[in-house]
Design a protein that fits this description.
5-stranded parallel sheet, about 50% helix, single chain
């Protein structure tokens, strides 16, 4: 059974392509037919580096370790908890109306802060999703789920449909000015916290970073595997890392951070 689980990797498009390309390169080298191998060989090595080694996790750790880890009970008391979007999406199929994903730790951490009595208000942010001619709000879906399933004693607000992190920061800044809030707890994925924290500070807000949703193998329980069969999770993490690098660059160019 263990062997079958390992071999199942080669039934995926990524694993099968990696195996075919590697086998073809080895066969060409064995036949001493080295002409034309530079580009396919480089492609296979790059694919191997980012799917069979901890290279992607090392890159993600560089983003995730920008802020110290904080347990909910050790966070500073604040006026509100800000839960950034990305942990769920509105769903017409799910019984609760919200489909949670791998970043749902953002919602869980925000609830833990409320449970620890660190704030009296939770603000939920999120993007918008279009279905034919109607748009749906991620934040509205999560707030509806919270009020139905969790029923927190504290006030829970939705930011509605937000275009991006900058839009979330501006909307929170407006609410903070209206209510006279001084201190906020900012909850988002650890890899996203550097850009998010800088954006909220630029918007004139005083926030304490509460990172969560650690995906780097260096920041998770278990030993780091230095060599392993290719996995699509590594490509997903690399895409997230690249998304943050591009986001940081664009936000600096726009003056948002």
């Amino acid at each position: 059974m263990f062997l079958l689980k390992k071999l199942a990797v080669f039934a995926t498009p990524l694993g099968f392509s990696w195996l075919l390309l590697g086998t073809w390169l080895i066969w060409r080298l064995f036949r001493r037919q080295t002409r034309g191998l530079l580009l396919p060989g480089a492609s296979w090595l790059i694919l191997t580096l980012f799917t069979c080694t901890p290279a992607t996790s090392w890159l993600m750790r560089g983003l995730e370790d920008q802020f110290p880890r904080i347990k909910p009970e050790n966070a500073t008391a604040a006026d509100a908890v800000i839960c950034l979007g990305g942990g769920a999406e509105p769903s017409l199929s799910e019984p609760t109306g919200a489909g949670f994903n791998g970043s749902a730790d953002r919602v869980a951490t925000s609830l833990a802060l409320l449970g620890a009595g660190k704030a009296g208000t939770l603000i939920v942010a999120g993007g918008d999703y279009k279905d034919k001619t109607r748009r749906y709000s991620e934040a509205d879906a999560v707030v509806a789920w919270l009020k139905q399933a969790v029923k927190p004693r504290q006030e829970v607000l939705s930011l509605g449909m937000c275009a991006d992190t900058h839009d979330e920061a501006l909307k929170v800044a407006d609410i903070a000015r209206q209510r006279g809030w001084k201190q906020l707890l900012l909850v988002t994925s650890a890899a996203h916290m550097k850009r998010a924290h800088a954006t909220f500070v630029k918007a004139g807000l005083q926030v304490q970073a509460v990172p969560c949703d650690y995906v780097s193998s260096f920041n998770r329980i278990g030993s780091v595997r230095w060599l392993h069969l290719p996995g699509s999770g590594s490509l997903t993490n690399f895409e997230a890392w690249m998304h943050e690098q591009i986001g940081l660059l664009l936000y600096r160019l726009r003056g948002w951070i």
